[in-house]
Each structure stands twice: as structure tokens, then as C-alpha cells.
């Protein structure tokens, strides 16, 4: 996995949550954003989508939210979690391959 594809994956995670602040979106899309900023922003957006899904779930239980909104929020949170887990697995695999390289 090269850096460009990793950055693209983190960009995809950052775009999952629609209610991101403009400054976070600007940092994520800028060419000079560091890798750690991309990771941090992506994880924060994944957490935010999880919180949004929980909030909509609570509203749905109280009868104040539409079932379509609930399904959409939960689906976005699930997608964010699956993406984060996949990227984590790829990073662990890459780390293990690097550790097996002869010195």
C-alpha cells in the first residue's frame, strides 16, 4: 500500500461524515496536510459519524426521528467503522512486512 492510496483512503473516511467543519475539510484536502493530520481527522470523523448514529437512534426510540434517517446514519457509521478496521489491518500487515525485512 503506497502513501497516495493510504491518503486517498483517509480522505474517503473524512468525507463520510457530512457535518464536518469547513476547516477540517480544508486541512484534509490540502496538499500540505501531514499524514498524522489525515489519520487524526479521519478517526475524528469516524467517531463523529458514530455519535450521530447514536443520537439519531435515541431520537428514533423516542419517536422523533424518521426510520430512513436512522438507517442512513447507522449505515454511515458502519461504513466508517469498516473502513477504519480495513485500514488498520493494512497498516498492521505493512508493519509486519517491514519488520521481516533483513537489515
Model description:
The protein is mainly α. It has one domain. It has 4 helices and no strands. It has helices at residues 3-14, 22-29, 35-61, 67-99. α1 runs parallel beside α3, α1 runs antiparallel to α4 (67-99) and α3 packs antiparallel against α4 (67-99). The longest helix has 33 residues, at 67-99. The chain is elongated, with a radius of gyration of 16 Å. It starts with a helix and ends with a helix.
In the predicted model, the low-confidence regions spanning at least 5 consecutive residues are 17-25
DSSP strand tally: 0
Which class of secondary structure composition applies to the elements?
A: mainly alpha
Major sheet description? none
- Count the helices. How many? 4
> How far is the first residue's CA from the last residue's CA?
21 Å
Number of domains: 1
SS strand fraction: under 5%
* Succession of helices and strands: HHHH
Average pLDDT metric: 79
**Helical fraction:** over 70%
What's the alpha carbon Rg, rounded to whole Å?
16 Å
Q: How would you sum up the global shape?
A: elongated
Amino acid at each position: 500500500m503506497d502513501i497516495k492510496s493510504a491518503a486517498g483512503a483517509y480522505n474517503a473516511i473524512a468525507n463520510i461524515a457530512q457535518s464536518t467543519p469547513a476547516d477540517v475539510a480544508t486541512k484534509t484536502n490540502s496538499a500540505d496536510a501531514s499524514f498524522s493530520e489525515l489519520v487524526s481527522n479521519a478517526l475524528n470523523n469516524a467517531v463523529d459519524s458514530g455519535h450521530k448514529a447514536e443520537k439519531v437512534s435515541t431520537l428514533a426510540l423516542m419517536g422523533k426521528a424518521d426510520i430512513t434517517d436512522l438507517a442512513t446514519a447507522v449505515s454511515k457509521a458502519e461504513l466508517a467503522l469498516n473502513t477504519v478496521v480495513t485500514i488498520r489491518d493494512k497498516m498492521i500487515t505493512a508493519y509486519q512486512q517491514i519488520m521481516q525485512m533483513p537489515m
